[in-house]
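Example for tutorial group B:
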């Protein structure tokens, strides 16, 4: 089935160049290779059933193509002189991406993790269901794609590409970080607008619109949100991943193509880690499966020189606890070892210390919409820093202007300002 891009209905003069278009169109199918004769008795197996080798198998009689710089199967041994010469060449060409972190757009989070996400690093985001993990991750992907020189690759095992687009339209209606809540659009409101306008068109009434984009563009409540989304729609690449098909090898192959097409300026977002397909490996248990996945994601970050950001689900014991920590995540030992940064989300109202001298159950209700982000691992800086952000769940957005937590939280932990 062909993939229909969001800009397909735009007039030709409104379309913008899409440098990653060819790479995106090839994500769902392997690159074309010269055909080679095969024995008639050997059946052709689908790509998903091939063994997960370090390099793809070549047809008989065909030599494998030389790997490109961004898609080397493994880093070859190099002397420090070679490494220094390569770094010199990049700096002289003005390529400073290895020295400049990529901001997530959340403050003070970026300041606490050294400025943002970095290439070769794996960042994990954990928490209970409904705490806002997908909202935060998709908003970060949007913030990355807003930069004219950066691309975001968002793989969702939970939601379709169309649903992610609808969420982003609701987010853009309040325009973070400006947070124009009076213009906020809820998902139900947007669906009602689309259905009503389409019904007018079907019945031949004046004012009805045909295509989705014309409806969104012409309605006063959605026009501005669509305009904001189109600022980065060519740089935010989404995929409805399959827990049965989209395994580590396919993620690595797709990321490699995008890295080649974008000059390495792509950040990978996984929603979520435990649903990544694992085959042909046969893990012994859930912890073994998580170990394979997290090691694979770290390998993608390292070998393809890209930042990888992944959501992680909490285990059963973590869901029962009053406050979720890194050790409550499924497969926590491997997650702790492989990750460079680990952030845990908790609802502020649930983790306020009830014996705090300033605790007031009536005033505390105002914290129900606030989420505490705790940096429980930070390989390049201080850990166990708590900050809070207000969640606008009905608009699928956080207010990215947060602050350090001033109150006492459970676990007898005092947070200083």
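The residue assignment follows.
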């Amino acid at each position: 089935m062909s993939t229909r891009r969001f800009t397909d209905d735009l007039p030709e003069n409104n379309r913008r160049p899409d440098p990653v278009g060819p790479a995106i169109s090839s994500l769902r199918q392997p690159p074309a290779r010269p055909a080679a004769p095969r024995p008639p008795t050997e059946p052709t197996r689908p790509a998903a059933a091939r063994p997960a080798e370090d390099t793809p198998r070549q047809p008989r009689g065909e030599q494998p193509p030389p790997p490109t710089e961004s898609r080397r199967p493994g880093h070859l041994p190099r002397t420090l002189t070679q490494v220094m010469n390569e770094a010199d060449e990049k700096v002289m060409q003005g390529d400073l991406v290895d020295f400049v972190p990529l901001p997530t757009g959340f403050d003070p989070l970026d300041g606490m993790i050294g400025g943002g996400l970095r290439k070769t690093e794996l960042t994990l985001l954990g928490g209970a269901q409904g705490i806002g993990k997908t909202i935060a991750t998709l908003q970060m992907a949007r913030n990355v794609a807003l930069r004219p020189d950066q691309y975001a690759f968002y793989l969702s095992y939970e939601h379709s590409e169309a649903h992610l687009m609808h969420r982003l339209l609701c987010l853009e209606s309040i325009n973070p970080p400006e947070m124009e809540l009076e213009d906020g659009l809820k998902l139900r409101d947007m669906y009602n607008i689309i259905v009503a306008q389409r019904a007018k068109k079907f019945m031949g009434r004046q004012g009805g619109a045909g295509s989705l984009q014309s409806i969104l563009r012409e309605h006063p409540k959605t026009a501005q949100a669509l305009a904001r989304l189109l600022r980065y729609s060519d740089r935010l690449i989404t995929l409805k991943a399959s827990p049965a098909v989209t395994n580590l090898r396919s993620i690595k192959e797709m990321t490699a193509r995008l890295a080649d097409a974008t000059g390495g300026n792509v950040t990978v977002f996984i929603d979520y880690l435990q649903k990544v397909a694992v085959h042909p490996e046969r893990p012994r248990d859930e912890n073994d499966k998580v170990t394979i996945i997290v090691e694979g994601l770290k390998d993608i970050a390292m070998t393809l020189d890209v930042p990888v950001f992944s959501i992680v689900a909490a285990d059963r014991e973590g869901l029962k606890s009053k406050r979720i920590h890194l050790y409550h995540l499924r497969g926590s030992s491997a997650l702790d070892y492989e990750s460079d940064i680990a952030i845990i989300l908790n609802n502020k109202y649930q983790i306020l210390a009830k014996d705090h001298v300033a605790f007031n159950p009536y005033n505390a209700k105002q914290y129900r919409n606030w989420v505490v982000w705790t940096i429980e691992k930070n390989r390049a800086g201080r850990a166990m820093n708590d900050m809070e952000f207000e969640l606008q769940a009905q608009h699928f957005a956080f207010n990215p202007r947060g602050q350090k937590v001033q109150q006492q939280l459970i676990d007898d932990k005092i947070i200083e300002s």
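Residues 27 and 254 are 6 Å apart (CA to CA). Compare this with the pattern of hydrophobic and polar residues in the output above.
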